[in-house]
């Protein structure tokens, strides 16, 4: 039963932290590598595949929360002539999402091997936690008080591309994809809520693509013995991601980013204490 408990706890950690600007990688290191030690239950490849599977639970949660938005983006909703005309002029377009995905897509192709080989260490995660926190404080301090885009439907192609550039920072472990993109969106003239909405929408194709590729590479790890471990983690990640996304979207407009930045500094200090003292 211990393996199922570990799976559920890690799924909870993934669900609560994947889309909040606090670094799910940092939390996985603190909870798993230092406390639960999932790699002692299964081979390292299985433990790594598990972390990919629970990301699918988080992706499914985003699809549920933003289901109407994705239906509109994909053109699957039938509209009357007047409604369709209004929609074309005043709603987020799929092309804007694609523009936002381009920078990280190119950077991922160019630097994936370098990141996997040199940046996945506790030291780089600590650096990412601190630098990402500083960026979030800068966004709160210097972001415009009257955003040009107070909803995701008002963002421009220039803002979408700019957020895509900031998203590249999230490739550094510990920096946080959502932290970098929300901060970037605020600095580019978006409200905190609009930047968060666009961040979650962009996360789905990026995370889904990376997850499916990883699943294909590690399909042999899905043995009958490991399957309950995967299923328990997937379900807990989905449930808690669903709760945390809804809660975070209400919270971000009220408290902004600075409290999350302070939390990141505390988390970095805890990891450093566990490792070096």
UniProtKB/TrEMBL annotation:
Membrane topology designation: Multi-pass membrane protein
GO biological process: cell wall organization; peptidoglycan biosynthetic process; regulation of cell shape; response to antibiotic
Catalyses which reaction(s): di-trans,octa-cis-undecaprenyl diphosphate + H2O = di-trans,octa-cis-undecaprenyl phosphate + phosphate + H(+)
CC annotations in GO: plasma membrane
Gene Ontology MF: a single term: undecaprenyl-diphosphatase activity
Subcellular location: Cell membrane
A matching Pfam family: BacA
Entry keyword annotation includes Transmembrane: yes
EC number: 3.6.1.27
Described function: Catalyzes the dephosphorylation of undecaprenyl diphosphate (UPP). Confers resistance to bacitracin.
Protein name per its UniProtKB record: Undecaprenyl-diphosphatase
The gene coding this protein: uppP
């Amino acid at each position: 039963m211990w393996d199922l408990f570990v799976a559920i706890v890690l799924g909870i950690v993934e669900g609560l932290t994947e889309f909040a600007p606090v670094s799910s990688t940092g939390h996985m290191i603190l909870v798993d590598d230092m406390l639960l030690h999932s790699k002692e239950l299964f081979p390292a490849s299985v433990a790594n595949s598990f972390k990919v599977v629970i990301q699918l639970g988080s992706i499914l949660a985003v699809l549920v929360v933003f289901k109407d938005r994705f239906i509109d983006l994909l053109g699957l909703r039938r509209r009357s002539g007047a409604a369709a005309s209004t929609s074309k002029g005043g709603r987020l377009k799929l092309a804007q999402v694609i523009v936002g995905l381009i920078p990280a897509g190119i950077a991922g192709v160019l630097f994936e091997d370098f990141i996997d080989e040199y940046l996945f260490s506790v030291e780089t995660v600590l650096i990412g936690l601190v630098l990402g926190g500083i960026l979030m404080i800068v966004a709160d301090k210097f972001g415009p008080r009257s955003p040009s885009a107070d909803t995701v439907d008002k963002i421009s192609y220039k803002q979408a591309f700019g957020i895509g550039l900031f998203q590249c920072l999230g490739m550094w472990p510990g920096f946080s994809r959502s932290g970098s993109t929300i901060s970037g969106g605020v600095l580019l003239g978006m409200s905190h809520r609009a930047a968060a909405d666009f961040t979650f929408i962009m996360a789905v194709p990026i995370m889904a693509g990376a997850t499916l590729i990883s699943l294909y590479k590690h399909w042999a790890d899905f043995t009958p013995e490991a399957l309950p471990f995967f299923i328990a983690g997937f379900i807990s990640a989905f449930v808690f991601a669903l709760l945390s996304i809804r809660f975070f979207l209400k919270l971000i407009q009220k408290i902004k980013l600075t409290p999350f930045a302070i939390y990141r500094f505390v988390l970095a200090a805890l990891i450093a204490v566990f490792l070096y003292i």
